[in-house]
Amino acid sequence: MQSGKSAAQTVATVKPLQIRGRTFTAIALHLSGRPDRAFFEALEARLNQTPLFFDNAPLVIDLEQAQGLDGPQDLVHLAAELRRRKLSVFGIQSGTPTQARAAAEAGLISLPGGRDAALERVSRQGSRPEPAPAAAAKEPANRMVTQPVRSGQTVFADRGDLVVVGSVSSGAEVIAAGNIHIYGRLRGRALAGVNGDASARIFCHALDAELLAIAGLYRTSENLGPDTPRHHVQVYLEGEVLRIEALA
Amino acid sequence: MSKVIVVTSGKGGVGKTTSSAAIGAGLAMRGHKTVVIDFDVGLRNLDMIMGCERRVVFDFINVIQGDAKLKQALIKDRRLENLYVLPTSQTRDKDALTKEGVKAVLDELRQEFDYIVCDSPAGIERGAHLAMYYADEAVVVTNPEVSSVRDSDRVLGLLNSKSALAEKGDGSAVKAQLLLTRFDQNRSASGDMMSVEDVLEILAIPLLGIIPESTSVLKASNEGTPVSLDEKSPAGKAYMDAVGRLVGEQIEMRATPGEQRRGFFQRLLGRTA
Ligand SMILES: Nc1ncnc2c1ncn2[C@@H]1O[C@H](COP(=O)(O)OP(=O)(O)OP(=O)(O)O)[C@@H](O)[C@H]1O
Ligand SMILES: [Mg+2]
């Protein structure tokens, strides 16, 4: 009883908790049938090509083409194998009801079906072998793009700032763990601080964005308002509010 | 040195085939040995627009699959000495195209032709990808409307990432230029359609030409004549100018007939030269 009372007191003294929406990019791993040795060998080969990109990447298992894989043990085993390879698996998608139950028992959540983007589009540069030594894996790595980011493309700086020398088209997406600098017009989507860095900012020469997000808090073109500055702007978080301000 | 030029757009029906035929004929008229290849497997529009549909015996797919020699499939144009067409098959689908097959055919054509013009199918799937994959240059055909511009932008992204030149990873790139077609000065001025400047601002590539909307295009295609052979057609003239620019000549961006704002186009030329 004593402990119950102190818990109640504690609750009264902490700030009311906050629940906020958050979007992030995950990797979808499509299985076709039961994962066998050949599967894990192929997976390892793929991971070795771009170790940094996949390092602790949030991952969902897509079971659309693996209907037979529905025992809890199957998923527990698969999740363990993936985690052993430093993939942060957290859920399944496109599963049958049986698979969803098995996933729940294996501690995985079931996501509603979504549309995947091709991985090349998620990380066009990540798909080339990166020369950085493994020891430097956690160092921030900025990324520079000197061509326009075209509709349908996604550029992801997963461990640092992203600099785009050129415009970001409508239907294109630029994402960074850190800040995003666009020396051009932003017509598409820009998501800065995607790993939760609320101090990240977005800078652009001209603003015409479809979506702006910092640390998961976002505004879309609809709620930017008519008197939003459109030229030489920075976007930053002030508490809960995404501020858009002309640079002096 | 021979050049492979893909005529591509993403969006359908914007004028790729019309442009491929007109550019091919224009290059041939200027004395360059030119072949136009139809990559739109299953539809086969190019040979109709070029007026040789009744002369097709073997096609591109037959050559890729080894059922015919390239020489058997090439159709020589009746009007122009230097012009050839490599028609596609109407009965197969685009899965009959393979990367290796396309490469082999292009390599063989490169031995003999100055220009190889590839008429791409719409979309960004297999057929369109293979049409652009081995290109040295791209003519991006765009209409002055939002959805066409958006699709062209996507195609430019693919050219920058998924072409053989881009995949070399040594900084080589497909040289892409914009061909704005079906342009109507009045509708653009009234805001019904996008302005040339708006399109250029979004796509950020050099302007190869502006082809006016013109009834002579449909007429020419019904007759099976590339519109650039029609000296009276404003669209034909605009195509000939574009061909001149394609081969590296400096040609002023001419105003379309009945159009008064010359200064406007001159400003444009200054921007993109
Ligand atoms: N400048 C123009 N003025 C008027 N009509 C035009 C013009 N250019 C093209 N057209 C018309 O637009 C239609 C589509 O042209 P075309 O077949 O060349 O397009 P396409 O991009 O090759 O189409 P697809 O994507 O189906 O291959 C045709 O009817 C053609 O006559
Ligand atoms: Mg066509």
Automatic annotation (TrEMBL), chain A:
<keyword id="KW-0717">Septation</keyword>
<dbReference type="InterPro" id="IPR005526">
    <property type="entry name" value="Septum_form_inhib_MinC_C"/>
</dbReference>
<dbReference type="InterPro" id="IPR016098">
    <property type="entry name" value="CAP/MinC_C"/>
</dbReference>
<protein>
    <recommendedName>
        <fullName>Probable septum site-determining protein MinC</fullName>
    </recommendedName>
</protein>
<comment type="subunit">
    <text>Interacts with MinD and FtsZ.</text>
</comment>
<dbReference type="InterPro" id="IPR007874">
    <property type="entry name" value="MinC_N"/>
</dbReference>
<dbReference type="Pfam" id="PF05209">
    <property type="entry name" value="MinC_N"/>
</dbReference>
<dbReference type="GO" id="GO:1901891">
    <property type="term" value="P:regulation of cell septum assembly"/>
</dbReference>
<dbReference type="InterPro" id="IPR013033">
    <property type="entry name" value="MinC"/>
</dbReference>
<feature type="region of interest" description="Disordered">
    <location>
        <begin position="122"/>
        <end position="142"/>
    </location>
</feature>
<dbReference type="InterPro" id="IPR036145">
    <property type="entry name" value="MinC_C_sf"/>
</dbReference>
<comment type="function">
    <text>Cell division inhibitor that blocks the formation of polar Z ring septums. Rapidly oscillates between the poles of the cell to destabilize FtsZ filaments that have formed before they mature into polar Z rings. Prevents FtsZ polymerization.</text>
</comment>
<comment type="similarity">
    <text>Belongs to the MinC family.</text>
</comment>
<dbReference type="GO" id="GO:0000917">
    <property type="term" value="P:division septum assembly"/>
</dbReference>
<feature type="domain" description="Septum formation inhibitor MinC N-terminal">
    <location>
        <begin position="17"/>
        <end position="88"/>
    </location>
</feature>
<dbReference type="GO" id="GO:0000902">
    <property type="term" value="P:cell morphogenesis"/>
</dbReference>
<dbReference type="GO" id="GO:0051302">
    <property type="term" value="P:regulation of cell division"/>
</dbReference>
<keyword id="KW-0131">Cell cycle</keyword>
<keyword id="KW-0132">Cell division</keyword>
<dbReference type="Pfam" id="PF03775">
    <property type="entry name" value="MinC_C"/>
</dbReference>
<feature type="domain" description="Septum formation inhibitor MinC C-terminal">
    <location>
        <begin position="144"/>
        <end position="245"/>
    </location>
</feature>
Automatic annotation (TrEMBL), chain B:
<dbReference type="GO" id="GO:0005524">
    <property type="term" value="F:ATP binding"/>
</dbReference>
<protein>
    <recommendedName>
        <fullName>Septum site-determining protein MinD</fullName>
    </recommendedName>
</protein>
<keyword id="KW-0132">Cell division</keyword>
<keyword id="KW-0067">ATP-binding</keyword>
<dbReference type="GO" id="GO:0051782">
    <property type="term" value="P:negative regulation of cell division"/>
</dbReference>
<dbReference type="InterPro" id="IPR010223">
    <property type="entry name" value="MinD"/>
</dbReference>
<comment type="function">
    <text>ATPase required for the correct placement of the division site. Cell division inhibitors MinC and MinD act in concert to form an inhibitor capable of blocking formation of the polar Z ring septums. Rapidly oscillates between the poles of the cell to destabilize FtsZ filaments that have formed before they mature into polar Z rings.</text>
</comment>
<feature type="binding site">
    <location>
        <begin position="11"/>
        <end position="18"/>
    </location>
    <ligand>
        <name>ATP</name>
    </ligand>
</feature>
<dbReference type="GO" id="GO:0009898">
    <property type="term" value="C:cytoplasmic side of plasma membrane"/>
</dbReference>
<dbReference type="InterPro" id="IPR025669">
    <property type="entry name" value="AAA_dom"/>
</dbReference>
<keyword id="KW-0717">Septation</keyword>
<feature type="domain" description="AAA">
    <location>
        <begin position="3"/>
        <end position="149"/>
    </location>
</feature>
<dbReference type="InterPro" id="IPR050625">
    <property type="entry name" value="ParA/MinD_ATPase"/>
</dbReference>
<keyword id="KW-0547">Nucleotide-binding</keyword>
<dbReference type="GO" id="GO:0016887">
    <property type="term" value="F:ATP hydrolysis activity"/>
</dbReference>
<dbReference type="InterPro" id="IPR025501">
    <property type="entry name" value="MinD_FleN"/>
</dbReference>
<dbReference type="Pfam" id="PF13614">
    <property type="entry name" value="AAA_31"/>
</dbReference>
<dbReference type="GO" id="GO:0005829">
    <property type="term" value="C:cytosol"/>
</dbReference>
<comment type="subunit">
    <text>Interacts with MinC and FtsZ.</text>
</comment>
<dbReference type="InterPro" id="IPR027417">
    <property type="entry name" value="P-loop_NTPase"/>
</dbReference>
<keyword id="KW-0131">Cell cycle</keyword>
<dbReference type="GO" id="GO:0000917">
    <property type="term" value="P:division septum assembly"/>
</dbReference>
